[in-house]
Amino acid sequence: MAKPFSGLAFLAGRLEASRREKGLSYSLLAKISGVDVSQVHRICRGRFRTLSHNVVKICNVLQVEPPEADLRNIPGEGDYDGERLVSELFATWDHTSAGADRLVDLLLAVRRIQKPG
User: Fold this and answer.
1) What is 1-77's CATH superfamily?
2) SS3 1
3) Could you read off the pLDDT of 52-66 as tens digits, one per residue?
4) What average pLDDT score do residues 92-112 get?
5) Could you give phi then psi for residue 24, rounded to 5 degrees?
6) Share of the chain above pLDDT 90, in %
7) Residues contacting 26, CB < 8 A, separation 6+
8) Helix, strand, coil distribution of the chain in percent, nearest 5
9) Do the Cβ atoms of 27 and 37 come closer than 8 Å?
10) Is the pTM of this model over 0.85?
11) Where are the domains of the chain?
C-alpha cells in the first residue's frame, strides 16, 4: 500500500499554478498526460493522498519536480500556518537557482536572529 503523502497542498498548489501558467485546461492536460480528466482535476485540486503514478505523470507534463515521498518537513493537510508559509515562499521565489540561493540565505539569516549564539 502506498504511503500517504503529507505535502499534498504544497504539491497541488504548484501543479495548479503550473497548469494555469502554461494555459492548459484540465481536458488538454489529461490528453497530454494520459491521465483521465477526472483524475487530473482531482489531483490539481489537491484531492490525493499518495504520490501515485498519475500524480507523477502530471508532474512530468507540468515540469513540476515531484518531491520525494518522505518529505517530513513540508506541512501536512490542516497545518494552516505551514501551508501559508510555503505558499508565500513559493510565490516569492523567481524559480531560478540564484533566487533559491537568495531565499535560503535570507531564511538562514532569520534563523540566526531567532536563535543567537
Assistant:
1) lambda repressor-like DNA-binding domains (1.10.260.40)
2) coil
3) 788 888 998 999 887
4) 82
5) -95, 130
6) 25
7) 19, 37, 40, 41, 44
8) 60, 0, 40
9) yes
10) no
11) 1-77, 79-117
Give the Cβ contact number of residue 102 at 10 Å. 14
Q: Are 5 and 69 in contact (CB under 8 A)?
A: yes
87: how many CB neighbours lie within 10 A of its CB?
A: 16
Which of 32-36, 42-46, 79-83, 86-90 is the most confident on average?
A: 32-36
DSSP characters for 65-111?
PPPPTT--SS--TT-HHHHHHHHHHHHH--SSHHHHHHHHHHHHHHH
- Cα gap 117→3, rounded to integer Å: 39
Grid cell in block for residue 65: 519536480
Rounded to whole angstroms, the Cα distance separating 14 from 44 reads 9
Euclidean distance between CA atoms 117 and 106, whole angstroms = 18
Backbone angles phi, psi at 25, to 5 degrees: -75, 165
